[in-house]
């Protein structure tokens, strides 16, 4: 603990709390969450710098700040590439085609419940839990258009499945990505969490499914076709993931390098795709009857990779910047060291990691996980996986506990709310407890402490 921090520590905590309260109020204030934490990050590091200069250690501040910035830069570049691939698949109608095919199948309500949950569980490890939840949530709302009360259980199922599926893959959630990039868990070791994550989803899913009728849904939809090059983009994304994992395992190169190289390949492919579509669209326009352009439907624009990059979630990326620098500042002043001793020495790692999962249902799991990584407690592989599991699935306990839940509250207004989710929190908690127990049982060999 920095001796000169008697005033600085409380001041930093006050700034952080105020910034995070503004993040909580994002929906009512219409203030993007990145703005308060970016301001808070700047103020916190100014306070840290003043405290270190008073202690005669001012030269250490820039080194500590650059260390946090390097961690953020690696996360930023990885997410920039991953989001660009996902947005390109959205632009190429890959997810829309999947959605319309499911809706057009006119399955029974229970079948929709299980199919959307299954897709959410297995799609989120490859894409991410937010995109997966939005796609499957839209399927549910389209199918249950006239039965909003029945949609609640299915939307909760999608949130739980998407969060659970993201917990056993480095690509499924920001927290798993951070743990992987930090080197605490290797890529292949995450799959030890598959069965615990599956249990986390299936326990509440079985309970909720008994409340749904077996009758057929009435929803129909015109099947959307995947635009040219959509399946190629999917293959490029899978190849990029394989390359990234190979470079990390064989040459020990950081994951962002493989992802950014894949983004470069996507941009190269986008060049040829744009040229092809430009020629095709021009031909269609020139062959229009009588050449009267006003009578034509507005043509779809040729593919442009930089238009895709513009749609990246910049608010989310800048939010990560603010949060990581805020937590880094709290660590620099010495508070995280004290908290680490309290949690991981006094309480023990198992209780501490379970507590982190419960806490992530209230506070975003990203700052909580980054705080633990910054503490860098001494833990075996089993405990690091337990942290990954609980931080990933703990957010399902409340609708505000994960990006997937918040997103579905936005598109499911009138059917999926904080209170409607809260009514099933007890069932989700049973899944949470069962998943922790499953991990402790089947992965006991990974606990060496």
Description:
This protein has 449 residues and is an all-alpha fold. The chain has one domain. It contains 21 helices and no strands. α10 packs antiparallel against α21 and α11 packs antiparallel against α12. The two termini are 28 Å apart.
Quaternary: single chain
Number of domains: 1
Q: Which residues form runs of ≥5 with pLDDT under 50?
A: 291-298
Largest sheet, described in full?
none
Q: What is the helix content?
A: over 70%
H/E topology pattern? HHHHHHHHHHHHHHHHHHHHH
Rg, nearest Å: 23 Å
Shape label: globular
Relative strand content = under 5%
Number of helices: 21
CA(first)-CA(last) distance:
28 Å
Report the average pLDDT across residues: 85
Draw up the topology in text.
Elements: H1 8-24, H2 26-29, H3 34-54, H4 59-91, H5 94-104, H6 109-123, H7 129-143, H8 148-166, H9 174-181, H10 194-209, H11 230-250, H12 255-286, H13 305-310, H14 314-332, H15 335-347, H16 349-359, H17 365-375, H18 381-393, H19 403-411, H20 418-422, H21 425-442
What brief labels describe this structure?
449 residues; 21 helices; 0% strand
């Amino acid at each position: 603990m920095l001796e000169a921090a008697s005033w600085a520590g409380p001041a930093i905590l006050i700034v952080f709390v105020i910034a995070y309260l503004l993040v909580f109020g994002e929906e009512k204030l219409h203030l993007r969450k990145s703005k308060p934490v970016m301001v808070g990050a700047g103020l916190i590091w100014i306070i840290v710098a003043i405290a270190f200069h008073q202690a005669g250690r001012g030269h250490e501040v820039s080194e500590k700040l650059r260390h946090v910035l390097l961690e953020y830069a690696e996360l930023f570049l990885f997410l920039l590439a991953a989001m660009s691939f996902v947005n390109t698949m959205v632009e190429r109608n890959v997810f829309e085609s999947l959605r319309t095919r499911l809706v057009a199948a006119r399955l029974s309500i229970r079948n929709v419940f299980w199919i959307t949950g299954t897709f959410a569980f297995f799609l989120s490890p490859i894409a991410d839990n937010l995109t997966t939840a939005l796609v499957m949530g839209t399927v549910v709302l389209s199918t249950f258009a006239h039965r909003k009360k029945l949609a609640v259980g299915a939307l909760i199922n999608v949130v739980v499945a998407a969060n659970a599926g993201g917990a056993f893959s480095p690509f499924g959630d920001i927290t798993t990505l951070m743990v992987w990039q930090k080197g605490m868990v290797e890529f292949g070791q995450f799959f030890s969490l598959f069965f615990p994550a599956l249990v986390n989803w299936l326990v509440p899913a079985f309970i909720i499914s008994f409340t749904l009728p077996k009758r057929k849904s009435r929803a129909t939809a015109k099947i959307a076709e995947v635009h040219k090059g959509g399946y190629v983009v999917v293959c490029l994304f899978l190849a990029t993931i394989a390359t990234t994992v190979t470079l990390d395992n064989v040459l020990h190169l950081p994951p962002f390098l493989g992802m950014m190289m894949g983004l470069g390949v996507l941009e190269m492919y986008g060049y040829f795709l744009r040229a092809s579509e430009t020629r095709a669209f021009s031909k269609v326009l020139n062959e229009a009857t009588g050449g009267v352009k006003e009578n034509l439907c507005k043509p779809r624009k040729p593919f442009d990779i930089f238009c895709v990059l513009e749609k990246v979630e910049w608010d989310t990326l800048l939010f990560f910047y603010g949060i990581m620098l805020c937590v880094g500042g709290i660590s620099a002043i010495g508070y995280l060291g004290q908290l680490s001793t309290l949690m991981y020495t006094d309480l023990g790692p198992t209780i501490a990691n379970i507590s982190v999962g419960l806490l992530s249902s209230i506070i975003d799991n990203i700052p909580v996980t980054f705080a633990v990584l910054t503490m860098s407690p001494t833990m075996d592989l089993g405990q690091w996986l337990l942290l990954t599991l609980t931080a990933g699935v703990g957010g399902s306990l409340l609708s505000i506990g994960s990006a997937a839940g918040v997103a579905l509250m936005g598109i499911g207004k009138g059917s999926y709310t904080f209170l409607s989710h809260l009514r099933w929190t007890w069932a989700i908690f049973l899944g949470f407890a069962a998943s922790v127990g499953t991990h402790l049982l089947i992965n006991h060999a990974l606990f060496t402490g």
